[in-house]
Design the sequence.
């Protein structure tokens, strides 16, 4: 099983369809779950994809449009019915607390856990959350209301101990953890054994960027440069670029151009307009600029 995966719960835009659900994703990293956006139907998708509700501790909301946050009240209620005890941390615009507080007071009295709000300034690129596995940064986007994406940066893993060398030097068990974190070893005779002789470097940390909703906005390129995986909205085809400009959304071609300029490793496009019966036209448009573009779909799991 991989350590870092993206699970697509919903990839449609604001208008409901029978083909797609509203925006939501799960970032699964080292057996922890982090949610990005929570449109209607999110908790049902969690069930369908056999995700463990108890491993979800942080939810990140990009902006205050309903297709990105209307699923939160139901999800919080379900967590209460499941007997949750640990705090739930919700990160997003300051208006998010104003939206949820009266709902929680009316429908969710007596929850066994605290809902802790962390207000984010969507106009700034800054560290918004950090734990032992990941750092999460905001990515300022350009939409009709203040909006930010999120950059998930995996923390470096410990080096791999070379067991044969540890046995050769008879390194005590109590010192092994320190060596995996970079310590040298000093033998009983005073010889310093360099850490590079005792360990192999761990795999380089991976990064994932989520950018939805936004107009074509090249200012994000330095922030997301070189990420292993980019999810970028592609609401419209280039034939509808006038509508994209009017609504501050992106075309598939524009999403691919951002990926190309940022030299990302892979690109997923999503947040599809309801006007397209078959999103293959969007994939082909993006693929002509950024080959290998992945088309989002509910239930898709992509390894970072």
Sequence:
């Amino acid at each position: 099983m991989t350590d870092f995966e993206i699970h697509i719960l919903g990839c449609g835009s604001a208008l409901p369809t029978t083909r797609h659900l509203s925006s939501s994703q799960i970032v699964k990293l080292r057996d922890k779950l982090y949610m990005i956006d929570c449109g209607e139907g999110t908790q049902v998708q969690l069930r369908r994809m056999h995700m463990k509700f108890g491993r979800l501790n942080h939810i990140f909301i990009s902006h205050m449009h309903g297709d990105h946050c209307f699923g939160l009240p139901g999800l919080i209620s379900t967590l209460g019915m499941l007997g949750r005890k640990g705090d739930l941390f919700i990160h997003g615009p300051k208006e998010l607390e104003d939206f949820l507080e009266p709902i929680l007071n009316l429908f969710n009295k007596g929850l066994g856990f605290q809902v802790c709000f962390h207000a984010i300034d969507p106009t700034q690129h800054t560290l918004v959350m950090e734990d032992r596995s990941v750092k999460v940064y905001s990515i300022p986007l350009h939409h009709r209301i203040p909006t930010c994406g999120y950059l998930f940066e995996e923390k470096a893993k410990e080096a791999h101990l070379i067991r044969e060398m540890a046995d050769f030097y008879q390194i005590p068990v109590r010192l092994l953890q320190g060596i995996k974190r970079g310590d040298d070893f000093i033998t009983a005779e005073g010889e310093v054994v360099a850490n590079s002789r005792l360990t192999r470097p761990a795999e380089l940390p991976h990064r994932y960027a989520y950018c939805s909703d936004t107009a074509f906005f090249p200012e994000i390129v330095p922030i997301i440069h070189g990420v292993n995986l980019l999810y970028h909205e592609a609401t419209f085809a280039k034939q509808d670029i006038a509508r994209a400009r009017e609504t501050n959304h992106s075309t598939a071609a524009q999403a691919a151009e951002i990926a190309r300029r940022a030299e990302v490793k892979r690109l997923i496009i999503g947040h599809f307009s309801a006007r397209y019966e078959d999103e293959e036209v969007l994939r082909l448009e993006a693929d002509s600029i950024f080959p290998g573009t992945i088309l989002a779909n509910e239930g898709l799991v992509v390894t970072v």
Residues 160-200 form one domain. The chain has a mean pLDDT of 94. The radius of gyration is 22 Å. The chain has two domains: 4-157+203-303, 160-200.
